[in-house]
Amino acid sequence: MELTGYQEITQAVPLIAGWNLFSTNTLPNPADLMELLEPLILSGQLVKVQDEQGRSIEDLGTLGGWTNMIGDLSAGEGYKIKVTGNCNPTFTGRPVPLPFEIPLTAGWNIIGFPGVSAVDGLKVVQQLIDRKTLVKVQDEQGRSIEDLSPFGSWVNNIGTFGPGEGFKVKVNADEVLTIQEAYTKGGPVVPAPLPTVHFTTKVRGNGTDHMNIHLVALPEGMLAPGDEVGVFDGGQCVGAVHIPNGFLAGIAEGVEGTGGGSPESPGHAWQVQPGGLQTLSMAISANDGVPGEGFTEGHPFTLRLWKAHENREFLLEPEILRGSATFVKHESTFASMAKYGVTGSGRIEKEGAEKFTLYPNPTTGKFYLTTTGATLQGVTLQVLNGAGQLLREELMEERTVEVDLTGCSRGVYYLKIKGEVETQVKKIVLQ
User: Fold this and answer.
1) Is residue 391 a contact partner of residue 385, using CB atoms and an 8 Å limit?
2) Contact, 136 vs 129, CB < 8 A?
3) Is 291 in a helix, a strand, or coil?
4) How many helices (H) and strands (E) does the chain have?
5) Domain span at residue 337?
6) 313-337, pLDDT tens digit by residue?
7) 193, 197, 233, 294: least surrounded by Cβ within 10 Å?
């Protein structure tokens, strides 16, 4: 009998506070996942583990204490894990033999990458693209590999797949993903995001259960370096990106890179399309049971633009071309900004725009909106609640108008002022 020898390896998997996706390229023995994570339990760092079927390892308290409903760690599987602080669990065992086949079922899966070094993620899943079964890939930060057509091609906003990482993969049919022993080229490097300075979120770490919003057909010159785009769930900013200096530059490999978001929120990637139109891709995190710390599925989203050079906010009203106008976990929405180029308002801040102020703010009920602009012709005033629902609408016929919110619930409201040159949005707080 021929004996095949192997040398055990130890792999450390870096995790940050909050949710992560992880896997391992080792085959530990014993393979009981809760036993392997026992050091995190004893140190009080482990909160919960979930597999793709929703089974968990968690503390059931008086109902049973720490309980393992997942079982053994499986090669090629990825897992969601939530920890209280940065840590590096280790796994010791024989290496996963390559090539290695990972079965996928139609719909969403969580996979691991059992390779020995980082490789181009697009090359790993190209076999699924060739068979026309891949729908989308997301990493733990919500960055994606997906087909942007007709606004682009397959784009890799993730970069590399590395040992110890996990990925969410959606396919339209049962499949088998084969992890090869070697790949011809490493993947693109995705630069770290720049911090936002105007829009801030409460999302911590990687976030969880992301949605991708692709702003397509951005007219040239609409966004400038330093500007920021924020995504709102009602009055709460749940995602934001900062436009970096490279945004207006050309692209060599299809993905310019990442820029935007804060250390607490995902970044974004951008492309330049033929004719100078650009695409901005954003990853937005769902809340983890705490409203405000990420979006609530089913709520409508709104987009806001902050123009850095004049320190002003504008409400963006894109045309939804594909996907939902509400937050949906894991899915993608394509929103066109083409109208800002067609109407000549791509710069947003056109000459002659009306200037509006409101006072007092905060208010206990009544407040006043005033303008020093040259004309009131065609100026419409809308009052919206924090969820973006229209409460009232009227023409602004005087340079100062009284708005009465007496009897309304306390909270954040918005005044949407639509003029011939631009649309402005002002926030008012009702105490």
Assistant:
1) yes
2) no
3) coil
4) 4, 33
5) 208-342
6) 888 888 888 999 999 999 999 998 8
7) 197
